[in-house]
């Protein structure tokens, strides 16, 4: 599936993807519902080990995202997403929105994502600050998060 994107030049869109996800509680959540302020978009797969490691570390270092909106998007089905959300207790964080875009792959195509997790960090004006793709040093990601 992801091999189809390899011919594209890597460009980072400056604004957040116009996402539409279904949250684990069944509600729809879209990019237009984001409040003003910094946003961290994380594209992941519940069965990806790097994604699991990063999520575990992110929860442990919650202070770096406590004042930011965190949107976690996957393409996987709800039956894979719910156990992931429960395992990391993501529903207990009011600033976290975790959902699936299903097979629209809109977010995946928008960012031309080839490996997970993909993290896009936006400042309070909604401008892209930095992206990380695939396995990256968590300390470096947290440092970038602290700066916005």
TrEMBL record:
Gene3D superfamilies assigned: Glutaredoxin (3.40.30.10)
InterPro entries on file: Thioredoxin-like_fold (IPR012336), Thioredoxin-like_sf (IPR036249), Thioredoxin_domain (IPR013766)
Residue runs in coiled coils: none
Domain Thioredoxin: from-to ranges: 10-148
Protein name, per record: Thioredoxin domain-containing protein
Organism: Dyadobacter beijingensis
């Amino acid at each position: 599936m992801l091999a189809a994107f390899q011919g594209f030049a890597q460009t980072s869109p400056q604004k957040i993807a116009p996402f539409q996800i279904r949250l684990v509680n069944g509600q729809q959540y879209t990019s237009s519902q984001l409040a003003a302020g910094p946003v961290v978009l994380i594209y992941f797969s519940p069965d990806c080990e790097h994604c699991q490691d990063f999520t575990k570390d992110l929860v442990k270092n919650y202070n770096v995202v406590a004042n930011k909106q965190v949107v976690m998007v996957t393409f996987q089905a709800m039956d894979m997403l719910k156990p992931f959300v429960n395992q990391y207790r993501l529903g207990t964080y009011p600033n976290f929105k975790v959902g699936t875009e299903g097979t629209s792959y809109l977010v995946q195509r928008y960012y031309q994502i080839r490996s997970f997790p993909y993290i896009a960090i936006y400042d309070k004006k909604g401008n892209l600050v930095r992206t990380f793709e695939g396995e990256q040093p968590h300390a470096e990601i947290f440092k970038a998060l602290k700066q916005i």
